[in-house]
Amino acid sequence: MRAAAVQLNSTDEYDRNLEVAERLVRGAAAEGAELVVLPEKWTVLGPPEAIRSSAEPLDGPALTAAAGWARELGIHLVAGSVPEIVPNQEKLANTSVMFGPDGKQRAVYRKIHMFDVEVGDVEYRESEIEEAGDQIAVGEAGGAMVGLTICYDLRFPELYRILTMRGARVITVPSAFTERTGRDHWEVLIRARAIEDQVFVIAAGQIGFAPPHYRSYGRSMIVDAWGVVLAQAPDTECFVSADLDFTIQNEMRNSLPSLRNRRPDAYRWPEEGADDSVRASAAEPATPAGAP
Predict the structure, then answer these.
(1) Over the range 176-193, which residues count as b (16 or more CB within 10 Å of their CB) and which as e?
(2) What is the pTM of this model?
């Protein structure tokens, strides 16, 4: 299977974002991609008011357009993520949808881990306008199971292991990874998830500046089950593609059977209250070098 990761510099200009996304999806398909992945918030990346005003239900204009591209081009398309209006829910969801070559939904995933962090002097509070999801999602693409994740999920290996145990051979990571953290963490985390779960990872990212303070790292990439980077994007809007060889993936899993060598009976989560100790240690001031 040939796969492609689309890299965008989405801003709060909705129409422009869709135009560029369509052009790059068509370009990837023209070069033989059968599975194409768009980045997180590909329809709009901007201040909360822009996110809210561009939100739509699953049958809204952007996802309807994406379904049409998939159907016309005969591809599987993971439509990155969009701010979704969810029935009977006050807050939005950050939602990734995979469409099949028939234009029908194959999987819907609402981001589980909210990006509520401080990076340098910038504070991010995704949960202020978006509600965390609680359902893991996989869908079938060309005979292979594809697991869906979004950006910050990359830091939570439990999710990737469960997707793998549910049969995922490929995991997608539409992202808007910050430039500050991306320099040190982006490639390391992607390759780690690929190696430990022996899966292909397709990470499609945002690149560049978007208002009010977003600066995304880019470097979209496709990594194989050995952790080898098969393709990596330059610092511009573009797509990169690579062939996913499932026969080689099977050989890797057979020769280094770490998934079969798991010991679930020996793995026990800490007792209730352990999270409190983690939070407490995170709040303690760092001990100066040389101090006891």
Answers:
(1) bbbbebbeebbbebbbbb
(2) 0.93
Active site members: 40, 111, 151
Yes or no: say if 51 and 85 are a contact pair by the CB < 8 Å rule: no
Token pair listed for 109: 């995933």
- Placement of tokens 């098969």 in the chain: 230
Per-residue pLDDT of the chain (292 residues; tens, 9 = 90+): 999 999 999 999 999 999 999 999 999 999 999 999 999 999 999 999 999 999 999 999 999 999 999 999 999 999 999 999 999 999 999 999 999 999 999 999 999 999 999 888 888 899 999 999 999 999 999 999 999 999 999 999 999 999 999 999 999 999 999 999 999 999 999 999 999 999 999 999 999 999 888 899 999 999 999 999 999 999 999 999 999 999 999 999 999 999 999 999 999 888 766 666 666 665 655 544 433 3
